[in-house]
Predict the 3D structure of the following.
Amino acid sequence: MIDLRSDTVTRPTLAMKKAMFEAQVGDDVFGDDPSVNRLEAVAAERMGKEAALFVPSGTMANQIAIAVHTRPGDEVILEAGAHPFNYEAGGAAVISGVQLSPVPGKNGILEVAAVDAAIRAPNVHHAPGTLLCVEDTHNRGGGTVHPIERLDDLAALAHKRGLATHLDGARLWNAVVASHVAADRRARGYDTVSFCLSKGLGCPVGSLLCGPAPLIDRGRRVRKLLGGGMRQVGYLAAAGLYALDHHIERLEEDHRRARELSMGLMLAQIDVKLPQTNLVYLDVADAYAVRAALHPSGILVHAVSTTRLRLVTHLDIDDAAIEVVIRAFDKLPNSIKGPPPPPAAPPPPAASARPR
Ligand SMILES: Cc1ncc(COP(=O)(O)O)c(C=O)c1O
């Protein structure tokens, strides 16, 4: 199988499994797991923050961040394609009782003026805006990397207007490698930052939420409330420590393969942009038909919508796989891989609504 659906589909390498097998463990809910304690210390240090919390998923990291930065009835501002707005099962409303204010960006990158305009003035009618979430790289935006100035300016504006800041860095390491800007520098303006071990870094499970010690302490309580306190979880933390030492620089290979894939697909007459990182989005006439046509050749792709596909490079995709995929796309009929149909014309206004 050539599985391009996500960078979450990787399996631990032999060396990672060896590190997991040899891990020192204890009961982490008692704070006794030496591998988790070390991973949290390393994560905090790499992000330039005081403390960190190991959690099962990127979703839980974001939800804990939202919970510790807000009170019920608050408003959280985020980009319209952001993960907590689209893919976290309405968690912010259920867990924190907040409303989300989605602001459209360009390829997932927010304009400072648009965020400024979205922060409501204090008024008895308004839900007070108390948190800005920024996503780097931006998944739905196409794996896009924020220019460092934009990250800084968004955080500075939020703080000036009295909002806290959270950076959803599920794929922050991809942004670090693509931009050559260190993780602690990218996260500098943000009160909290999360990153995932189970995406490009090749671990089976795990994310970290990093920030000031008092917030992380509160986050530890929210993790317990959500049932995310884990016991001898050092086996997973050991995978994370291994990945932070061995799987970051190689992300550049995933980015190169994503570029080569998109260039090959352009030659196969596909509507695709050159990616900045490891996420390749394509617009086609019939995404479900393309997905079905590739399946018998052992190629798995993700249909984001009826006309949009996502192909993701990762640790288990090599150069040979990229060539196989480009050849398979080349052979597909234009009727399914061609450009998406133009949007349907709006229906004529009802007779009574026609201007006289
Ligand atoms: C930007 C972003 N944030 C958060 C998450 C959530 O991560 P998880 O699947 O570990 O819950 C994802 C998952 O793809 C993501 O892309």
Remarks:
- The longest helix spans residues 251-267.
- The chain has two domains: 2-246, 251-337.
